Amino acid sequence: MYLKRLELSGFKSFAKPTRLEFPVPVTAIVGPNGSGKSNIAEAMRWVLGEQSMKSLRGKKGEDLIFNGSQTAPRLGKGSVSLILDNKNKNLPIDYDEVRITRKVFRDGINDYLINDSKVRHKDIIELLSKIGIGSSSHHIISQGEADRILNASLKERRQMIEDALGLKIFQLKKIEAERKLEKTQDNIKQVESLRKEIQPHLKFLKRQAEKAEEVSALKGKLKNYYDEYLSNEECYLRFGKEEISGQKNKIEKEISLLEKETGEIKEDSKTTELKNKIDEIRQQVNKKDSEINELRQKRNSIERDLGRLEGMMEVVDIKESKTENAISSKEVIVFIEGLEGHIKMGLSENSVEIIKEVLNNIGGLIKEFSDKIKSGATVASPELKELKQKQKETQDLLAKIEKQEKEFLTEIQSLEEKIRKEENFLRDLEKRKYENESRIKELKILLENINSREFNFKTQKEELEREKQEARALVGKITESLVNQVDSVKWLEERHKTRREIERLKIRIEDSGGIGDEVLKEYEDVKKRDEFFEKELNDLSQSIKSLKDLLRELEDKIDNDFREGVDKINKEFQIFFEAMFGGGKAELKKIISKKRAKPSEDEELGTLGLENLDEESQEGIEVHVSLPQKRISSLDMLSGGERALTSIALLFAMSQVNPPPFLVLDETDAALDEANSQKYGNMLKDLSKRTQLVLITHNRETMKQAGVLYGVTMGSDSISRLLSIKFTEAERFTNR
Questions:
Q1: Is residue 666 helix, strand or coil?
Q2: Which of 608 and 568 is assigned the larger pLDDT?
Q3: Closest by alpha carbon to 5, among 722, 717, 733?
Q4: Is the terminal CB of the chain with fewer CB neighbours within 10 Å at N or C?
Q5: Is 219:474 a contact under the CB 8 Å cutoff?
Q6: Are 645 and 581 in contact (CB under 8 A)?
Q7: When comparing pLDDT for 14 and 729, which is higher?
Q8: For the segment 426-458, what is each residue's pLDDT rounded down to a tens digit?
Q9: Which residues of 432-448 are buried (b: 16+ CB within 10 A; e: fewer)?
Q10: Which phi and psi angles does 627 have, rounded to 5°?
Q11: Is the model's pLDDT at 117 over the cut of 90?
Q12: Is the pLDDT of residue 9 over 90?
């Protein structure tokens, strides 16, 4: 897991959305004093759950929001988002990237979000505790707080070390177990008190219950009668209702189908569609009639042309076979046969127009034959050949037209057949509609009779339910056996006898004047309550045992891990201390207390409940150091630089034992001279192999360790901005 980026918007001097990427093990943030670079460290501290406004250099939540300037308006909210890579699933969230967001508004309200879903502050604390980031903020060391771990009290220092060792989650579990234990013990006292209260009443009810045995026997007998009566009556009504329901459903289904079919027939669109279809077919027939008439006219015209051609051919043929100005009998016969053909054609037609046209054709032939006889002209053989060719073409065209006319007549016949079919179908629809409406009327009369019978069964069913309620009031729970079939006639005879016996027993129970079922029920209820209390006490006792076992396990876990962790820290502490001071000795020592106070109910889990622990009785950690060639008896004898180096050595040691995902150092190197700065830089280089570092610094040696440099500047509008500095430029800057 590593820190991917930080996003700020409206937080302190970062009025505009600002984004910092952390793609390398060491990232340095540089800038002049007052530019707002330390606000980045405070933003990280704040988004991770910091509650102390003092550590954020403010008095109230509103102080964290950009307050505006002469050129920029103040904002209504501030927000910070910290994005962690979670591909290895160190955090128990099913996301490869975890976004932790905190927002603050002018009214002081804070919102906490994990991947844009609202959560509680407690949820943030518990989640971060799983990766070694605790409330002590040992992973974020701001300017002036480098030696905070040395100035801390014994309990605060122990808490910081526990956080660094990842024991926060176990402390939370321990506190929760202690609270549950205390609550369980209170519950035991309450249950014992309640059980004592009901004991006298339970004894009284037991005596009363014994007196009710006689009435109970009568009720047992009555119950048997009720069981038989109610079961048979239920079966009788059930099967009667099922029979009626079946008939009703069958009729309703038939009515529904008929009404649906009739409705479809009645639909105007259906009838209109049929009529429109018939009209369309009629229009097609009329169109075909017109087309046939046109073909016939065309055919008559072609026949006239053909007749003229034949007449001309006869004349030519006659002229070639006769002597000059002589007409043979053959020519006269041919001419007469041509006239007879036209006359027959005219007689076969009914149209006056066509007959007139045929007569005109006959007159034309006679005139043409007469003119040729008078002229005595002859027709050359090529002319006859041409006339024969035209005759053939005209005959072919006539045959084609006659074929098309025949096809049209066939189509008209087919269309007229369709008209007859559609008209028959329309008549069938009307007939079916009438038949359906008649059948629906019959079925509705039957349905009214069935509804009347159904209502009677419903009334009997309601009466049966009232009897069941009365039976339950008298004898308690009724056992109705499942009867699959009952003889209706036989049951109607026996039901009266059973009813009389039930009424007789009811009268005896009423006359007995004994204790009613209420006493028995109350006795059973109180007895069950007493048994429940007894079971509850056993369960609570078992819970106490389990909680105590859990507490012992957690205490052993915390003590063992803490002891082992301190030993590991001491080894690393000694290594870093020697590197800083060129020798000497440094170690942590555990101070054992006599007792520890229990946390209060209203304490925040994030505080570990340590605020209520007495300082003298709290387990804690002391720091012992011995500088080379210098005798000291306490940390107070260290100089400022020595304290800073000691704190840095201890913080680095803690980070080496249980590396947090990242470590933020805000000008912790400010008090170091050049020689110690080089040592500090070398330690940063080694530390970055296991922990991601974010450094806010002015120190050149520290800058050299960074893979990415961010420059922070502030303009006249009091808004902090990030500057992108290339590595070559950064190197020139650090070498000045």
A1: strand
A2: 568
A3: 722
A4: C
A5: yes
A6: yes
A7: 14
A8: 777 778 777 877 888 888 888 888 888 778 878
A9: ebeebeeebeebeeebe
A10: -85, 150
A11: yes
A12: yes
Average pLDDT over residues 22-40: 90
Confidence of residue 606 (pLDDT cuts 50, 70, 90): very low
Q: What is the pLDDT of residues 655-683, one digit of tens each?
A: 778 778 888 988 888 877 787 888 888 88
As a residue count, the chain comes to 736
What angle, rounded to 10 degrees, do the helices at 640-657 and 154-164 form?
40
Work out whether the CA dihedral 10, 13, 15, 21 comes out positive or negative.
negative
Distance CA 233, CA 231 (A): 6
Cα 145 to Cα 52: distance, rounded to the nearest angstrom = 14
Other CB atoms within a 10 A radius of the CB of residue 551 amount to: 16
Tokens of 606: 């994030």
DSSP 67-122: ---SSSPPPSEEEEEEEEE-TT--SSSS-SEEEEEEEEETTS-EEEEETTEEE-HH
**Mean pLDDT highest for which of 404-418, 546-560, 598-612, 631-645?**
546-560
Residue 118 region by backbone torsions, left for phi larger than 0, else alpha for psi between -120 and 50, else beta:
beta
Q: Which residue has the tokens 């205490």?
A: 555
- In tens, the pLDDT along 321-355 reads 654 444 555 667 667 777 777 777 767 666 667 77
Pairwise CA distance, residues 499 & 720, whole Å: 95
Closest by CA to 593, choosing from 622, 573, 564, is 622
DSSP 424-463: HHHHHHHHHHHHHHHHHHHHHHHHHHHHHHHHHHHHHHHH
Tens-place pLDDT, residues 525-551: 888 888 888 888 888 888 888 888 888
- The residue written with tokens 């002597």 in the block is 323
Cα separation, 371 vs 319, whole angstroms:
13
- Tell me if residue 554 falls in helix, strand or coil: helix
**Which tokens go with 313?**
């051919």
Rounded Cα–Cα distance for residues 177 and 302 (Å): 118
Extract long-range pairs of 149-154: CB within 8 Å, 24+ residues apart. Answer: 149/623, 149/647, 149/650, 149/651, 150/623, 150/635, 150/643, 150/646, 150/647, 150/650, 153/615, 153/620, 154/591, 154/615, 154/618, 154/619, 154/620, 154/621, 154/622
Classify residue 595 as exposed, middle or buried by CB count within 10 Å of its CB (0-12, 13-18, 19+): exposed
What mean pLDDT is reported for the chain?
A: 78
Distance separating alpha carbons of residues 139 and 3, to the nearest angstrom: 13
Report the run of H or E that residue 193 belongs to, with start and end: helix 168-211
> What is the value of pTM for the model shown?
0.48
Which pLDDT belongs to residue 12?
A: 92
For residues 162-189, average pLDDT: 83
Distance between CA atoms of residues 114 and 726, nearest Å? 34
In terms of Cα–Cα distance, which of 463, 309, 460, 465 is closest to 396? 309
Q: Judge whether 376 and 327 are in contact, CB under 8 Å.
A: no
Type and span of the H or E element at 399? helix 381-475
